[in-house]
Design brief:
By secondary structure, the chain is mostly helical. It has 5 helices and 2 strands, in the order H-H-H-H-E-E-H.
């Protein structure tokens, strides 16, 4: 926490930036941010629903820089891998072969 706050202050952050850094540390309990175990997905189901091969999904998550835990504007938390699957499902929805 101190490093982030120091970086915001020395970086010329506004009062709003400083408040955000403090609130981020208070509201996010880092102990609860452990990644949940992966769930089973059938290879054909993955290809059909997400249009990627199952072995490519972790690499795609790393390339897109999706964090381990995604927190929405509404405050909902989701595992980064599940967030990637939600994104891919939404992007593949309108057009089906």
């Amino acid at each position: 926490m101190e490093e982030v706050l120091e970086a915001v202050i020395l970086g010329g952050g506004t009062n709003e930036d400083i408040e955000y850094a403090i609130m981020d540390n208070i509201l996010i309990d880092r102990d609860e941010m452990e990644v949940q175990p992966a769930f089973y997905l059938n290879h054909l189901e993955v290809l059909k629903n997400f249009r990627f091969h199952q072995e490519d999904l972790p690499r795609l998550r790393n390339v897109l820089l999706i964090p381990a835990v995604v927190v929405t504007d509404a405050g909902d938390r989701c595992d980064g891998f599940k967030a990637l699957l939600i994104l891919l499902k939404r992007l593949s929805y309108p057009v089906r072969l």
